[in-house]
Amino acid sequence: MREIRLTKVSMVFQRFGLFPHKTVTENVEYGLLVRGVDKAYRRQKTLEALELVGLAQWADYLPDSLSGGMQQRVGLARALATDAEILLMDEPFSALDPLIRREMQDELLRLQKELHKTIIFISHDIHEALKIGDHMVQLPARLKQHVQH
Questions:
Q1: What predicted TM-score, i.e. pTM, was given to this entire model?
Q2: 55 is in which domain, residue-wise?
Q3: Residues 35, 7 contacting (CB under 8 angstroms)
Q4: Which CATH number belongs to the domain containing residue 124 in this structure?
Q5: N or C end of the chain: smaller count of CB under 10 Å?
């Protein structure tokens, strides 16, 4: 199971999930570092991911220097750098203002078209789900049944 999490699935968090004391580059490299990937390859994949999300010029900055939308792009770049088959995105744009949120939705659609990743996108916003998703599952607002073994 650990191997699957390390190689097949990458996560983009609701609240950015960035290390405040690490640069943008170090934050993006983190998933590859945990995997034990060598430094040269980590750096190459990180720079490619930063280019994809439009943050290459911010590589040496700390997260506090970035806007909320840019911080979320760092989280997205970290997920992309691992080249995982599946991106699990747990309400990644919910903390962003409406304008930046729409821009990030458009950016995600562009990246999906280019990279052809499987994206599991969790959202409480039906409009966002309709814009981004091609398959949707609506879960009930409350627990219907709890089975205990």
A1: 0.85
A2: 2-128
A3: yes
A4: 3.40.50.300
A5: C
